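Build the 3D complex.
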Amino acid sequence: MNNIITLAVEAHGLVKTFGDNRAVDGVSLSIPAGSICGVLGPNGAGKTTTINMLATLLKPDAGNAKIFGYDVLRETQIVRQLIGLTGQFASIDEELTALENLMIFGRLYGYSRSDSKRKANELLEEFGLGDVASRALSKFSGGMRRRLDLAVSLISQPPLIFLDEPTTGLDPRTRTQMWQTIRNLVKSGSTVLLTTQYLDEADQLADNIVVIDKGRVVANDTPDGLKRSVGSSSLRLTVKDADKAANAAHIIKRVLNTKVHLAEASELIAPMDNTDKLTDVLTTLKDAGIALSAVSILQPTLDEVFFALTDGGSKDKDDEIK
Amino acid sequence: MTNTIIIPAAERKLKNRVGVGRAISNTSTIAYRALLKMFKSPEIFVDFIVLPVMFTLLFTFLFGGAISGDIHSYLPIVIPGVLLMASFTNCTTAGSKLREDVDKGTTSRFKSMPIARIAPLAGSLIADIVRYAMGGITVFTMGYILGYRPEAGISAVIFSILFITFVAWSLSWVFAFISLCTKTISTASAIGVVVMFPLVFLSNAFVPAETMPDWLQYSVLRINQLSRVVTTVRQLLAYGSTGADFWYALFGALVILGAFIPLTLIAYKRKT
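Done.
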């Protein structure tokens, strides 16, 4: 490969501890310019802390990071000219109008009054907020606030944008709109790093998914690669007699040749690539005299991704059946 | 949607520092933001009108007869006192907006931007100057309505407002520091009230110190530096001149600024 590919983000072994808590414990990332990287993980996995280190808000305790080749610690002000950050909470002013909010940030980035106003109006149009530009934010819906908040971080047209859980708390329709907005950003030449708790969101948007758990990267793969390791769907079985759950798990494990996860006393979850095998599973269970009270095939959830990814060495795996 | 093409990082002109001109422009933008928010929030009405009007009427009519025999001769005593109390009350809330920004994540966003680090802090506190000055203007207007005509004239009034505004502004850094150090905004405002009451009432703001026993007179006039502020304003309004108290008060305010600007800045950086 030729080495002309520019890396928007290049981080090595980032560590951040808060007291006893190693919030980020050796995260390495590399994101090529012009792509969307999805950082997937549950609450408290260290997603926001990682973003905060890359966005120069927190100093890493160890490791280093470069944004377009500029060091986040030594060339902080340069890095800040290249990034836009949209945090988890809309950090815009309730009392002000959408236009005023945007213009203030335009002014802060050093644009003249008229430039700020022009850019602000352009963004408001693009984000479908043109009609409400001069309305106070207190009358805005959650989705409108999010869009405005994103617009604020775009006013300087940064080549790298950090989006911390951009769709958490949005209704499905607004969520789809937000996805489209993010896709368009990349089309215009931006690089996007977004965090999410939803597998489907990462799947929809990201070119590459980094799964983080307890401050560590547990997987770094394309959405397809990740799904292969998880299985495209997941089988859920509830056995009638909880005592037979372990036995059932062994059978499923043998038939499907995967790991089986005992979710509750009598519920078993297993990744499944080929739904045809369901018949095999059911027949074998019936032959073994194990009665079922429920069977379903679902999209894998984040829990299952983690279950599939964090095997072997990790500690709390007592619920895994070998 | 976004039809503008983003300029790649490699083709941008980038500097790793924020110049003085930029720092001033950033600070004034933040101050503009704070003022815009101030004039759009209902609290402005309380700070500018309700508090000063209420304090002036309350103290004048309540204490006027008892302390000076009648309301009119109490006005030269009480107006400087109310001036102090109104601006002091306003500056105890100096940090609350700042703290709100920290809690809401606005500060984090500011921090991720290529702006001067002191701008969000300085801009917000500079905008507050308007609050203190407006409070002062309301107090003098109320005094005028009640029949107060300072001997030294309008220039003394203007100078008094400038002086009290400067004192309040320097004190506001202390309260900004407190609000950045406490767990919640309400703790900070509780501290503000607890500090304000004894300081204002154990001064000569509403009563002439001459009537107090010697030991109390000493502590009120010499230990509580706020009395120097009140005395300065009274002298200004009565004779158009100032004495040693003015220099003590000015020196005190400068010491507070010298100590608390860096402390507040450190607390602010810690918090974000």
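Chain A touches chain B through 55 residues (CB under 8 Å).
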